[in-house]
Amino acid sequence: MKVTIDDVVLPGDFCEDIIKAGEKSRVILGPGLRKELEKIFITKAGVLRKRAPNTYWVDSYQKRYVPARGENVIGVVIQKAGDSFRVDVGGSCSATLSYLSFEGATKKNRPEVQVGDVIYAKMLVASKDMEPELVCVDSNGKKGRLGVLNDGFVFKCSINLVRKILNPSCPLLNSLKNEWPFELAAGMNGRIWIKANSMRETIAVGNAILGCEYLTSEEIKSMCTNIASILAGHVS
Amino acid sequence: MGAEEKDLRDFKLQPMKCELNFLSKSDGSAILSQGDTVALVSVNGPLDIKSTSQSIEKSTLEILFCSKGGKPSVADRYKENVIRQTCEKAVLGCLYPRTGITITIQELEDFGGFLSCALNCACLALLNSGVSLRHVFACVTCGVDEKGEVVLGGRGCDTQISCVFDSIDKTLITCFSEGTYSEGTYLEAVARCRAASELVFAFYRDVVSKYSNAI
């Protein structure tokens, strides 16, 4: 079936608008789109989206992570193997993380990472034929916000929930940060790490995130005030 | 996630009801009822599998069929085979080499036409799991009554013909049947099923549009 931008699409549909745009300039095909024999086919169920000038993708529901280059993910170190760590990121195979790809790490000065540590890292290499590779530094050799996550609490959720809360138009984090202080790292592999001052507050943040999956912006705002008032003890 | 009811009485298809994401732990799942027949399908993958069953070109599909009694039988192997061949055509396995995708089918109620219900349910579960697909597929069953006429649905008929179509240009990708019928009857049944498959595709689109507004 022929579809246009912002339509609900199913695999096997094709879009001629993208072909037309492609004749004039280069277009970028995001997840859920595939070129086959001069036609652009949809491969995932969801909503076809476009961002000006020429990026197209399908917003779809997904729980299983498929590694993609440049994404920030949260992984658990499962093995120390010689000069690299093996990190479970939830994909089909574990990722490698070289011990040299930490800020200030040298052959002599190894980073302190133990098996079982939670790591916030960036996907450097992610192709379907090779095992993914992670780094904990940016291209300037600075760690930025990447590295080992100490304390806190990690939970899993669907991948589109992570996309939703990271979307600048989603009011969840903006509403929550005004209510009480907490730290949060969201991995694009569907894992979220949170750390707050007390257990009560940590659980409240986690529940707020999990609860907003199918809510609209307005409902999210009222839910946040609701949770904040429960936490403050006004409502038992 | 999305519960949906559709009256398909015009085409005499069984009314379909479906819920996606029925199981919380699997990567994708769906429960579908077509009339009284109910199937539950869960999809897990792409996952790591043992290296003997890995393929360097495409992902390996594994189908597990659990009947209500729980005892495996030869008939179940046949059903697994039909479902695997259909899903292998639909799944873009070349995007996930050296991995495995497991599809588990649980029979809940069987009042006839279970395999066609399981196939449609597997398609919905694959859509829910976010695995890349070439196309969606729809299975429709026809029966042949005593007078030799083709009826859609065809509960209780001795002869039953089921056809699976892809969504791109409605080509026949799988066909399985029971009983005896003539060539003319077969061609008529395929044509009737092809027309009715439109309804199933429209149902899929309806289900997806229900939940994609929320995400």
Describe the structure.
The complex is a heterodimer of chains A (236) and B (215). Chain A is α+β, with helices and mostly antiparallel strands. Chain A has 3 domains: 53 residues, OB fold (Dihydrolipoamide Acetyltransferase, E2P) (Beta Barrel), CATH 2.40.50.100; 78 residues, OB fold (Dihydrolipoamide Acetyltransferase, E2P), CATH 2.40.50; 80 residues, Ribosomal Protein S8, Chain: A, domain 1. Chain A is flat. Chain A starts with 7 loop residues before the first strand and ends with a helix. With 215 residues, chain B is α+β, with helices and mostly antiparallel strands. Chain B has one domain: 2-Layer Sandwich (Ribosomal Protein S5, domain 2), CATH 3.30.230. Chain B is 29% helix and 33% strand. In chain B, the strands form 2 sheets. Chain B has a 6-stranded mixed beta sheet with strand order 1-2-3-4-6-5. In chain B, strands 8-7-9-10 form a 4-stranded antiparallel beta sheet, sandwiched between helices. In chain B, 45% of the residues are buried. The N terminus of chain B is likely disordered. The chains are: A alpha+beta (236), B alpha+beta (215). At the A-B interface, helix 2 of A face strand 4, helix 2 and helix 3 of B. Chain A: Its main location: cytoplasm. Chain A: This is Ribosomal RNA-processing protein 40.
Question: Which features characterize this protein?
Answer:
heterodimer, A: 236 residues, alpha+beta, OB fold (Dihydrolipoamide Acetyltransferase, E2P), Ribosomal Protein S8, Chain: A, domain 1, 4-stranded mixed β-sheet, 5 helices, 23% helix, B: 215 residues, rRNA processing (chain A), exosome (chain A), cytoplasm (chain A)
